[in-house]
Amino acid sequence: MTNLSEKQQAVARMRRAHELLEDEVLAEAFRRADERFVEEWRASDAEDNQKRLAAWAKAHALEAVKAELRRIINTGEHAQAVLQKLQ
């Protein structure tokens, strides 16, 4: 981030990412999806590598979305600290 506008945008994105991670409906959707993926994996036949891998991949993709939101928050927190120092 090189300019003030980019830092302000990062802070705005941080706030939105916080809202998303704290959203009750989204949290429930993430939880239910994760439970469904784990159940798909458990219900799959031990020799059905394709089905097991697909369930694993879906669960990890869901975690990747959450990790990306946390990355946006971390970037925004850094930008916010820089902006506070400039004031």
Could you characterize the architecture of this molecule?
The structure is a single chain. About 90% of the residues lie in helices and about 0% in strands. With about 90 residues, the chain is mainly α. The protein is elongated and about 60 Å long.
Describe the SSE topology.
Elements (H helix, E strand, L loop, with lengths): L3 H19 L1 H20 L5 H38 L1
Structural domains: how many:
1
Round the Cα radius of gyration to an integer and report it: 18 Å
Average predicted confidence as pLDDT: 95
Number of helices: 3
The helix-strand sequence is HHH
Low-confidence stretches: none
Instruction: State the total count of DSSP E strands.
Output: 0
Strand content: under 5%
| Structure classification | mainly alpha
Name the overall outline.
elongated
Helix content: over 70%
Largest sheet features: none
In angstroms, what separates the terminal alpha carbons? 17 Å
Task: Give me some keywords for this one.
87 residues; mainly alpha; 3 helices; 0% strand
